Amino acid sequence: MQASSVPTSFPAVFANGAGTGYIRSVPTASQIGITNGAASLTDGFPPLCFLATSAGGVPPFGQDMNGILNQITAGVQWSQVGGEPIYNAAYAATIGGYPNGAVLQSADGAGFWRSTVDNNSTGPEATAASFTGSIAGTTLTVTAVASGTVMVGQTLSGTGITAGTLITALGTGSGSTGTYTVQTSQTVSSTTITAAGASNWVPGKFYGTTAVTATGSAITLTAAQAARDIIVISGTLTANVQITFPALTKNWYIVNQATLGSFTLSVVVSGGTAVSLAAGGSILRGNGTNVLIDALQVAPATASQHAVQFGQVNTGRLINVQTFTASGTYTPTTGTNSIIVEVCGAGGAGGGASSANASPGGGGGGGSAARVRITTMPTTVTVTVGGAGSGVSAASGGAGGSSSFGSYVIAGGGAGGSFNSGSSFPVASSGGAGSTSLTISGASTMSASYGGQGGVGVVYTSGGVGLSGAGGNSLIGQGANQVGTGTAGIAPFVNCGAGGSGACNNTSGGSNFSGGGGSAGRIVVYEYA
């Protein structure tokens, strides 16, 4: 058959204009013995219609012909215009239920339900209820509702109730107290009745969004709520809230717009494992037993607007920083693929001052330093941190020690500031030399610097103005400031490799002073994935 072989659609239902007396509905039950010659869905046209009138036969009724063709073409036209069947409890009871695979349109026209078993009479959108009622014949009378809503399509159970009893129509009741029609005639005195909700129906494609408001109580989604693919949750939580989903094999897109505060919002299938929902959007997968949030795989990003793989953003990411202010051993953090290492030698101490004569101490020299990158990762590296040069009273300052990161970087320490004492003015003391000892091997140099020269200390006249030498700078720190007369030297910031300043006296008869100690070395390792 070809797509072009579309049959002509009925523009009108057959005999839709037939007047009274020219058309009648064809009943299901046989009309034999009731109305001679009348058609029924059971017999069609009865045997009398096939006998000659001379032999006692009865001609077919034209009303029956109009009636059956009207009924047939109405169904055909509904299908031709794209209409789908809708759940009908009375019809389901008559035919013994819908078959496995039957597809019905939802009550609101927004989607479809599919039966998963044969002989399925329950309503796909029915919800559970509990109430007090009695049955006389096919009339159910509800006198009190404990929970839920009474509706068409519910299957009833309780003391004395026939198994499989189905509510097929509303009477005076419309969800609460009142009368309803059931398909099985019976007599049941007033009792507690349980109405089962939908079973053996699964949602097909549904249009639209389900809105759920979460506050402080647990929520159980109805079949109709869970049928939609997008569920938007709002509200302000006043307690932990759990939302129970039906046990379906289905995906949902959850938009969590609720204000969580200190509480949690989770989703679960009854009897399954709960999953916490973070704020924002989540793809939730039901497997018939649990609901899960799976990790999603995306292609490698090639443009700025693309989603990226974790490996793309993870490569080169700073994962840890290890700082050494004392000698030891470096061991890479798990996941480290490259490192940037900052190594600085120690600073020298400033020169001291004597009480015997004018004596301006020179500033200590700064340690050399380098910042390098290593991409071939070692298993471990021996780390040596240079010790600070020590200040000495009335003597030259001590030199700073060398710092090293294995053989990758060796950075020398600065020299101590000199000490000079005298009465022939001006009196001066030279600053300690900044380290020019710097070795780099097996690493890429990012920056490197020799240590800064310590400043000169000078006293110009006896009892006059005098200043010690300032400490020399390093790549990562500033040397200590110079001091005036009658003052000990000062040390720079710790572990920056800079030099200490000298002490200063401008005449005899004062006190001995020590130069400021240098700053110890430091090694910092930045670890990248």
Q: Your description of this structure?
A:
The chain has helices at 62-80, 89-95, 223-227, 310-314; strands at 103-105, 111-115, 129-148, 155-157, 165-170, 178-196, 201-206, 209-213, 219-220, 230-234, 241-245, 249-256, 265-269, 275-276, 280-287, 291-292, 318-324, 328-330, 338-344, 359-360, 369-374, 381-384, 403-405, 409-411, 427-429, 438-440, 444-449, 457-459, 466-467, 504-505, 522-528. By secondary structure, the chain is mainly β. It folds into 4 domains: 35-83, no CATH class; 85-206, no CATH class; 208-292; 313-529, no CATH class. A hairpin with a 5-residue loop joins strand 1 and strand 2.
Would you spell out the secondary-structure blueprint of this structure?
Blueprint: H1 62-80, H2 89-95, E1 103-105, E2 111-115, E3 129-148, E4 155-157, E5 165-170, E6 178-196, E7 201-206, E8 209-213, E9 219-220, H3 223-227, E10 230-234, E11 241-245, E12 249-256, E13 265-269, E14 275-276, E15 280-287, E16 291-292, H4 310-314, E17 318-324, E18 328-330, E19 338-344, E20 359-360, E21 369-374, E22 381-384, E23 403-405, E24 409-411, E25 427-429, E26 438-440, E27 444-449, E28 457-459, E29 466-467, E30 504-505, E31 522-528
Parallel strand pairs: 8-10, 9-11, 10-12, 11-13
Antiparallel strand pairs: 1-2, 2-7, 3-6, 4-5, 4-6, 5-6, 12-15, 13-14, 15-16, 17-31, 18-22, 19-21, 19-31, 20-30, 21-27, 22-23, 23-24, 24-26, 25-28, 28-29
